[in-house]
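Our consortium's second objective concerns turning raw sequence data into structural hypotheses that experimental partners can test. To show how far this objective has progressed, the report includes one record in full. It was chosen at random from the queue rather than selected for favorable results. The single chain below, 517 residues long, was entered without modification.
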Amino acid sequence: MSGASDLVRLDAAAMAQRLAAGDVSSVELTQVHLDRIAEVDGPAETGVHAFLHVAADQALDAARAVDAARAAGEQLGPLAGVPIGVKDVMVTRGMPTTAGSRMLAGWVPPYDATVVRRLREAGLVTLGKTNMDEFAMGSSTEHSAFGPTRNPWDATRIPGGSGGGSSAALAAFEAPLTTGTDTGGSIRQPAAVTGTVGVKPTYGGVSRYGLVALASSLDQGGPCARTVLDTALLHEVMAGHDPLDSTSLDLPVPPVVAAAREGARGDLTGVRVGVVRELDGEGYQPGVRARFAEALAELEAAGAEVVEVGVPSVEHALGAYYLILPSEASSNLARFDGMRYGLRVVPDGDDVTAEQVMAATRAAGFGDEAKRRIILGTYALSSGYYDAYYGSAQKVRTLVQRDFAAAFEQVDVLVSPTAPTTAFRLGEKLDDPLAMYLNDVATIPANLAGIPGMSLPVGLADEDGLPVGLQVLAPAMADDRLYRVGAALEARLTHAWGGPLLDRIPTWRPAAEELSA
C-alpha cells in the first residue's frame, strides 16, 4: 500500500484529526477503505472474507453528508467521518442482517439497533456488515453459513469467533473501527488472535436493543479497534442508557477516553494488578505464557504492583456457561419458525401443517453448531432436569460473581492470557466441539460475572509468529480501569517494538495455494 492508500494504516484518532483539520475528506477516507476491501476481501475462496455485505453507495452518501456538515460549520462528534464495520448481529435499516445464518439470509430490517443509530448520529460511516459464527455461536467464524473468515496474519488460520469478521477487517486494514458482541469471549478472543484490541463493557453498559439475541443474560455489545484509545473513543459513542433495553444501566458512562489518554503516559504507580491463579496454569501454549510473563514485567516497570490472586470458581465457569448459554439460546432461537420473517421452507404435499413448516425451516436454516446448542439447551430446561442442570449452573454463576467481588477487594484489575493458544488452523477443531469451547476458558468468567474485559496484543509467539493477547478485567462500571492499564501497557510495548505490532503483518494478498490448503 502506498500513496492515498496509506490512509488505511492510520489509527482512527489520527484519521479523525485529519478530517477535522481538512487534510482529507470523509469521502476520500471512505473510498480508500472500500478500495482496500475490494483488494483483499471477497469470498473465503479468494480473500479474507471479513465482510458479508459491503454498502458502498450508502457509505459514500453518508460520507458526503458528513463532509457537507463539516463545511457548513456544524459541531460534529470526535469520530465523524471515520469508517466502521458493523458485526452482522446488529440490525441495520437498509442493509441485510443475517447473524451469519441461512435463517436470515437476505433479511433487511426496518429499523436500526440502538448502537447502529448512535453510530449514525455520531457521523461514523458504515462500510458494511462483518462475518460471524452463526448467531454468535463459535470461536473461529467457521460456523458462518456464508463461509469462514481468514486471519490476515496467515490465510490458513482462523481469526477467532464469533466476531472474526470484525477482527479480521481491522487486521487487514479494511476498517479502522468495528463493532462486536461478546457472550463468552467473542470480542476478546478474536482480538487476541489477530493482534487487535477488543473490549466487552460492563453488562448493561451498551444497549442490546436490536442485537439478535443469543443468550440474553450474557450478550454484550462492545468496541473493536487497533489501539486502546480508538477503542475508548468508539466505546463512548456506543455506550449509555437506553430505555428500549430493560437491562440497560441508567448510570454515567465511565470516563474511558480520559483514562486511555492518562494511561498512555505509561505510569501505573499505585495500581494493584492481580494475576488470576486459575487462569495461568497448564494448557497454555509456551509462546502465550512467555509473552504474558513479559507483559507482567512491563506492568511492574510502569509502577504497578503485580500479585497473584485466586478466583477459585472460575475452574467451573466453562461447564456452567455451556448450560446457561444453550438454555437461553434454545429460548431465543425459538422465534425463528418460518412464519413471520426470514427463511421459510414448505414441505411438499397437501394439508401441510404449521409444525411441519417449522420443522422443515429449522432443519434447513440452522447449522450444526446452532442445532447442537439448541438441543442441549432444550434438554437442560426440560421437566425433571431444570434444577439439576440450568439451576445448578446459575448457582455456580453466583459463586463466580462472589469470587470476583472478593478478588477486586484486593486489587484494582485482574489479568490473564486472553486465549490459551494463538490462532489455530482452519478446520483443526471443527469436528471437536469441546476443543473449540476450551478456547474461551479465560474469557467466559467475565460474562458470567457481568464485569468488563479487554484484550490487547502483547507480542508474537516464538513458535509460530502469531499474535498473543493479554486480558484485563475490572469491576462492574469500572471500565475506565481497563483503558488506563491497557493504554499504559500498549505505550510501553509499542515503544519496545519500535512501532505497532500490526506493522509486522505482511502486506497480505493470499495466493491460491494458501487458500486451497
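The partners drew two points from this record. The radius of gyration is 22 Å. The first strand starts at residue 51 and ends at 54. Both points have been shared with the crystallography group to help prioritize constructs.
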